[in-house]
Amino acid sequence: MCSKVDLVSNAVMSHLTLWLSFVGSVIKAWELGIPTMKRGEIALFHCQPKYAHGKKGLPPKVPPNATVQYEIELFSWRGM
Predict the structure, then answer these.
(1) Rounded to 5 degrees, what are φ and ψ at 24?
(2) How many whole angstroms separate alpha carbon 40 and alpha carbon 75?
């Protein structure tokens, strides 16, 4: 499963801005976790392979069956 935990202040993270338009366009961890967030919240998602990129990974950066970590900041949310 994926867990949302407090941000570790000394972690090195990259920043990515996404527009989430519909279910199935992002990894399962984000589909489950982002709707639980509040505007302005920063969350660190630790995601097992079945909730992230799975058996195939995301070459060349994410190897097969990798547990990945994403930092997500929610700037705004509009319901469908």
Answers:
(1) 95, -10
(2) 5
Q: Please tell me the distance from the alpha carbon of residue 80 to that of residue 77, in angstroms, as a whole number.
A: 10
Q: Which tens digit of pLDDT belongs to each residue from 16-32?
A: 555 555 567 789 998 89
Rounded to whole angstroms, the Cα distance separating 35 from 43 reads 12
What distance in Å separates the CA atoms of residue 67 and residue 48, rounded to the nearest whole number?
A: 5
Q: What is the pTM of this model?
A: 0.68
CATH number, span 2-73: 3.10.50.40
Locate 38 and state its tokens: 């509040």
The β-bridge partners of 33 are none
